[in-house]
């Protein structure tokens, strides 16, 4: 009976190792699975213009914002699919309940009691070419305009103006 249990355990462990999440480009988040049977559909010569909306807050103040993590997955998936980094233009607009993720570690800790769990992911996304904007309307509505924020995040007049402008320029909106 012990041998049987051991064999079952080994089978589960070996199967689990095949389905491990990978973090190929953005290491701080955005885990993805390799899908060897997937048919290639990307055009590596095409310019991919993505407008990504982050309007949801984190489940808990000490956890990474899941929508921000999905943004990292979007980058990992596109680059893993064969799109050259120079052909992937991603702009993320943060607003509404997502607004607090823009705070510096110190400001976040003052407000929530823990350092900002999003900092490493924000910095890595920015270092990989993702442009991040905070809606100025949300910033002022939530009275965070004077709070120190992550320097990788720029301010725009409003999420709505940024979104309509970029969609008019051919950016594809992703609203997770």
Automatic annotation (TrEMBL):
Highest taxon of source: Bacteria
A Pfam family reported for this protein in Swiss-Prot or TrEMBL: DsrE
Transmembrane segments: none
Family annotation (PANTHER family): BLR3518 PROTEIN
Protein name stated in the entry: Intracellular sulfur oxidation DsrE/DsrF family protein
Organism the protein comes from: Runella defluvii
């Amino acid at each position: 009976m012990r041998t049987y249990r051991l064999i079952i355990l080994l089978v589960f462990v070996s199967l689990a190792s095949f389905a491990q999440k990978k973090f190929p480009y953005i290491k701080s988040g955005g885990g993805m699975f390799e899908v060897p049977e997937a048919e290639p559909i990307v055009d590596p010569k095409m310019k991919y213009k993505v407008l990504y909306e982050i309007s949801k807050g984190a489940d808990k103040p000490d956890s990474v914002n899941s929508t921000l993590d999905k943004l990292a997955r979007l980058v990992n998936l596109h680059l893993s699919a064969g799109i050259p980094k120079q052909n992937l233009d991603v702009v993320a607009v943060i607003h509404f309940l997502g607004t607090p993720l823009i705070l510096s570690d110190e400001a976040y800790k003052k407000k929530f009691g823990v350092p900002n769990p999003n900092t490493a992911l924000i910095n890595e996304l920015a270092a990989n070419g993702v442009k991040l904007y905070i809606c100025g309307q949300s910033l002022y509505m939530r009275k965070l305009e004077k709070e120190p924020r992550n320097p990788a995040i720029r301010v725009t007049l409003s999420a709505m103006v940024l979104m309509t402008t970029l969609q008019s320029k051919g950016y594809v909106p992703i609203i997770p």
